[in-house]
Amino acid sequence: NLKSNIVMSLSASGASSALLHPNGRIYQYGSRVEIQAHDVHGNNKYAKMWYKGVSFTSENCALVYLVDSAGTRTTTDSFSDMSQDFSLAVFYNESRHGVGYQQEAMHLLQNAQYFVDDKKVQNWIINNVRISQTPDGLLRIARNSNKYQLRTSPSNGSATITTPFVHTTASLGQTSHLFVRRGERRMHYDGSSFIVRNAGHSAGFDDKNMLKVY
């Protein structure tokens, strides 16, 4: 989505995904999700969903916190550098690409289906992947009966990734936010307050960048 500066990618197996959005970045691989939430003042927030719970910190915070079944406490943890474009690595990982697959790719394209439905939505079906675009630009890409789905819209800068491993949404404008859900773990950021949730406990940073335990 060039208009909104959004990039989404999904690996061939669907086990890893990436979202690059003006509000933040999300990298999910297997059972782990790494999150970077962008702060306009430079105090970016970081979170990681993993087997211990949800750990989080911010650019200007010297401590790392962990929210687990016992509540919120300080911990030692590290976070990945997400400043580079990792979406291409996710896209090409496990994929069959290169000159050797050119003939197979051409065969799949020749067997692709295209139709416009009664709501003027354009639809393409290529190798069991369905791509649809509404007249206002909303784009959906889905496979396996919508079990794996990417959505983005140029009108409000929205993006959604839904897989059995993660559900994440982001948007610009009046409802500007970044949200991630994996199982019972959650992260929500609205540009000012940053909240993570796990096992019935919540904590994060408020609009003054102070730690808050809910």
From TrEMBL:
GO CC term, one of those recorded: extracellular space
Annotated protein name in UniProt: Uncharacterized protein
Domain of life from the UniProt record: Eukaryota
